[in-house]
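Exercise 7b. Backbone tokens:
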């Protein structure tokens, strides 16, 4: 079962799997269709993208976690364009942690490696992209260690409730520079845009915990 919103990549993966003797019982382009198709076809393994319609946030991953809540032994291999530590951790925590994989999409281009990962996950193994492993290990460290001294200073002022203009005045820089610093802070703290969350508040909470 394949879920990928890019038609070209979806068709490419279908053709690739077919050449290696695997049958794709259904290939869909959004998370809702993924859940419905799994219910209908009961596949041996699900391969899904993380970001899919309608919000292009983490719909694919949430669908995968929901499916594993219903069927804890359902093997799931997730493909992602970027390393998202929170996404990876949520997937690996689903079920009993077996039969899951998290790979960057670049691995699809390394055909033998991708097919081997697919087989391992289908057989109940756990496969995590080496870059994701590095990011997960970094998660155990002080989350603020990645920030520059100036970015820490900006975050401290945000935690005091200062606006961008007030921070700019305090540090004698432009508001555009402050906006750039804040963007860097949110990226380094692994706070991607998601519906229903305020990343500035989450950044402050991370600062206070650290």
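Sequence design result:
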């Amino acid at each position: 079962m394949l879920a990928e919103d890019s038609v070209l990549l979806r068709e490419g993966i279908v053709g690739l799997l077919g050449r290696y003797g695997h049958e794709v019982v259904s290939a869909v382009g959004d998370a809702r269709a993924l859940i419905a198709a799994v219910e209908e076809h009961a596949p041996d393994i699900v391969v899904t993208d993380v970001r899919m319609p309608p919000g292009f946030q983490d719909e694919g991953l949430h669908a995968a976690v929901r499916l594993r809540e219903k069927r804890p032994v359902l093997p799931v291999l997730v493909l992602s364009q970027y390393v998202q530590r929170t996404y990876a951790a949520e997937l690996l925590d689903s079920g009993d942690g077996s039969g899951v994989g998290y790979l960057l999409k670049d691995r699809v281009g390394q055909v033998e490696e991708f097919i081997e990962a697919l087989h391992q996950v289908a057989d109940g193994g756990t496969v995590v992209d080496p870059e994701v492993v590095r990011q997960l290990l970094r998660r155990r460290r002080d989350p603020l260690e990645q920030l520059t001294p100036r970015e820490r200073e900006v975050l401290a002022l945000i935690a005091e409730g200062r606006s961008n203009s007030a921070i700019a005045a305090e540090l004698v820089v432009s508001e555009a520079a402050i906006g750039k610093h804040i963007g860097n802070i949110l990226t380094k703290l692994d706070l991607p845009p998601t519906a229903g969350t305020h990343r500035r508040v989450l950044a402050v909470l991370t600062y206070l915990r650290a």
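Instructor comment: Residues 77 and 101 are 4 Å apart (CA to CA). The chain has ten helices and six strands.
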